[in-house]
Specification:
Length: 748
């Protein structure tokens, strides 16, 4: 019995393993596949109701399948005709990987797996029902918006001849920012009963009964008609969450603007009583270049994306917006920053296209479960429905903008960047560059501030003809901060990038964004992996030409708190060669000494973050020293003028020393070209992250006007007075190096 994986998935047993690595190591317990579940699909909306298949275990057709999530929420599953079990995902108030276990007898739950709960707006469109012309639904009853509304869905998504369509509302009750504050999705009423599952439904909306008409933010749910209205955790298709203008009561229909104005004023009064979250959110980057480079702390706001043609409905005049990735520590608030075509920040003080910070971070924030941390929905309640009240359904936008005014960038400090690429060339946080071609596993950076550790593994490079070259390249990078999940990015045998999360290979086919423990992980279509840790530190990894390129971005608070191959981050290049025992070596050290410095940062046994799931990895890195002392690299490659490659190399590399080095040592122009690209990318990144001085926003004088909306170093704002008023103070003020405006305050 001791060798069974029942209730033991993820453990190493005496004679065999129930860990995920057992499959490639060939030491699984005989019943590993029966009890440690693989599921498909592996993700779905946190709203629940999604049917997923348990792929590897076969069940008795008469079994009563029960699926239990987080040992708290139980849903009823079923066994299909092929003997495979299915579960239905539950409504959860959190995102991320959720452990679940399965029972066939209603008592014991020996089978286990994980389900990925996803932010409702990050779910593929095909999984939701579609509100045709969504704007019409959300403006229904306002001037010039009436007539039929249409809902469409994929019929095959529900195995039922007839369906019900239900209306649900979202509310948060209890005292704001207190223990008794709680969130609830509540079933309201059936909109359409027992209609054919045709994939299409049109209706003329009538105002809701009075008891429902106070619900102005909600969602639609389609379920098979054999379930009672509002029954929880049954197979469902949800719509997008939206403003319920179409169902609001008669008082809204009679005079939408007056109704919304009253709501807007009411919202403003409530806001007055709530704590000021603006004081603790991070300031915006000063320029678009900074905002796009600071990938550890800011991420594209998909509602205004320069790479998707800058369709910025809510931010006229902007070409790109970003959101702060982490919610603020105490109030879980969010920051948004928008930029115009010159790369300058747009402020709400100057334009309705300005960026608006959020009382509730759109993505929610760990530990989720309670307001204001509910993904998506808390944000809707404090920041979006109020925008409808004040700006879209009535003409009171100034009220909203006063409570959600843009932050400028006076206190923003860009992060520092360090990179490694090619057959490894290192560029430290302080700008030292060197080449270290050891073979083994090394500490790129570690910090005592947050226990951040980033480790790199190098492996021998092979010539195009297959023989080994006397140089190495980065083949894997592993990272962790405090007690976060462990993420590793590596090249697989077929030279595809592979990402491992706590030793398990991650599949990005359904989701490109993962909410993990202590970090977020994002993968782009062109295989760029970004890890964003809760401290604001970021790690970017790309696979280029058979090598990994890694860049680590650290906020200013890490100053004097780093060590490893990327050096001590303190704006002083002289101590970047600091050994483990804190002794330092001159930056003019010989290549042999630099090699010894690198070897000193080999990962210590027992502290490795890497996954060893093949015999060869175990042999090379576990049963041997982490630094292979017998591997002696080429320090200075020989450049033979008669070598036909040299001429091509000069054309390709010009004066880039790393590119020349890599062409000569690997005999590959492709490798040289990737190195050159990575080197240029790093230089551009450092350029984009240079600090920018801001003097802060300047208002126009009373009874006067101003010209100019750029508040960065060197920019000038000019003033004029209305007719009949005389100007005193400065006619023009210029932003100075000290971060202050020249001249005296202007008055009219």
């Amino acid at each position: 019995a001791q060798d069974s994986c029942a209730l033991r998935c993820g453990e190493l047993l005496g004679a065999c393993s129930c860990q995920v690595t057992c499959q490639s190591l060939g030491n699984c317990c005989p019943d590993y596949k029966e009890f440690c579940l693989q599921i498909s699909p592996y993700s779905g909306s946190l709203m629940g109701g999604k049917d997923f298949l348990i792929e590897n275990a076969i069940f008795n057709a008469s079994s009563a399948i029960m699926c239990r999530f987080k040992k708290e929420v139980t849903t009823h599953g079923y066994v299909g005709q092929d003997g495979r079990a299915h579960c239905i995902s539950p409504l959860l108030y959190e995102t991320g990987f959720i452990p679940f276990d399965v029972s066939t007898d209603g008592k014991t739950f020996p089978y286990s797996g994980t389900w990925l709960s996803v932010h409702h707006s990050k779910v593929a469109d095909g999984e939701k029902c579609t509100l045709v012309n969504e704007t019409k639904w959300q403006y229904y009853g306002t001037p010039n918006t009436d007539g039929n509304l249409t809902l469409t869905w994929t019929r095959q998504a529900l195995a039922a001849p007839k369906v019900n369509i239900e209306v649900w509302g979202y509310q948060e009750t209890g005292d704001s920012y207190s223990e008794n504050w709680s969130a609830e999705w509540k079933y309201l009423y059936i909109l359409a009963k027992e209609i054919p599952n045709s994939g299409n439904f049109s209706f003329l909306p009538v105002p809701a009964e009075e008891k429902y008409s106070t619900w102005d933010f909600g969602i639609l749910r389609i379920t098979p008609s054999n379930y009672a209205g509002g029954q929880s955790n049954v197979p469902s298709i949800w719509s997008s969450d939206h403003a319920l203008a179409w169902h609001l009561g008669q008082d809204f229909r009679k005079d939408p603007s007056a109704w919304a104005t009253a709501k807007c004023i009411d919202w403003e009064k409530k806001e007055e009583k709530l704590p000021d979250f603006m004081k603790e959110i991070i300031d915006c980057p000063c320029t678009l270049a900074q905002a796009r480079a600071d990938t550890g702390r800011f991420h594209t706001d998909y509602g205004c994306d320069i790479e998707k043609g800058s369709v910025c409905t809510y931010h006229p005049g902007a070409v790109h917006c970003v959101r702060a990735i982490q919610a603020s520590p105490r109030y879980a608030a969010g920051q948004q920053c928008c930029y115009d075509h010159t790369g300058t920040q747009i402020l709400t003080h100057d334009s309705t296209g300005g960026s608006t910070p959020d009382r509730g971070h759109d993505w929610g924030s760990p530990p989720f479960l309670k307001p204001p941390r509910i993904p998506g929905f808390s944000h809707w309640l404090y920041d979006v429905i109020s925008f409808y009240y004040c700006c879209l359904w009535s003409d009171n936008c100034q009220v909203y903008m006063k409570k959600r005014s843009s932050s400028d960038c006076r206190t923003y400090r860009p992060p520092r960047a360090a990179s490694a690429f090619g057959d490894p060339h290192f560029l430290t946080f302080d700008g030292l560059n060197f080449t270290f071609k050891g073979q083994g596993e090394y500490t790129l950076v570690e910090s005592d501030l947050t226990s951040l550790r980033v480790q790199g593994r190098t492996q021998q490079v092979h010539f195009p003809n297959g023989t080994g070259a006397q140089v190495t390249g980065l083949a894997a990078v592993a990272m962790r901060e405090n007690n976060s999940d462990v993420v590793e990015v590596r090249y697989s045998k077929d030279l595809n990038l592979q990402v491992l999360l706590n030793q398990r290979v991650v599949d990005f086919s359904e989701q490109s964004w993962l909410d993990l423990k202590g970090l977020f992980l994002h993968s782009t279509a062109d295989q760029k992996i970004t890890a964003m840790f809760s401290s604001g530190s970021g790690v970017e990894i790309r696979g280029i030409g058979g090598f990994l390129t890694v860049t680590v971005l650290l906020p200013e608070k890490f100053m004097n708190h780093t060590q490893g191959l990327f050096g001590v981050m303190n704006d002083n290049i002289e101590d970047d060669y600091t050994f483990r025992n804190k002794t330092t070596m001159s930056v003019h050290a010989s290549l042999q000494q630099v090699f010894e410095f690198g070897a000193n940062w080999a990962v210590k046994n027992g502290t490795s973050l890497f996954t060893y799931d093949t015999e060869s990895l175990l042999n090379d890195f576990v049963y041997q020293e982490k630094h292979n002392a017998s591997f002696l690299p080429v320090f200075v490659p020989h450049e033979d003028p008669a070598d036909p490659l040299v001429e091509k190399m000069v054309l390709l590399c010009d004066s880039d020393p790393f590119c020349r080095f890599d062409v000569l040592t690997t005999r590959s122009l492709e490798v040289g070209n990737s190195t050159k690209r990575s080197h240029q990318n790093h230089k551009l990144l450092v350029e984009n992250l240079k600090p920018v001085i801001s003097c802060g926003w300047l208002d126009h004088p009373n009874n006067g006007t101003k010209n100019g909306t750029n508040y960065l170093l060197g920019s000038t704002i000019s003033f004029a007075c209305n007719q009949g008023y005389a100007l005193s103070g400065a006619k023009e003020r210029t932003c100075q190096v000290t971060g202050t405006w020249s001249g005296d305050t202007t008055t009219c």
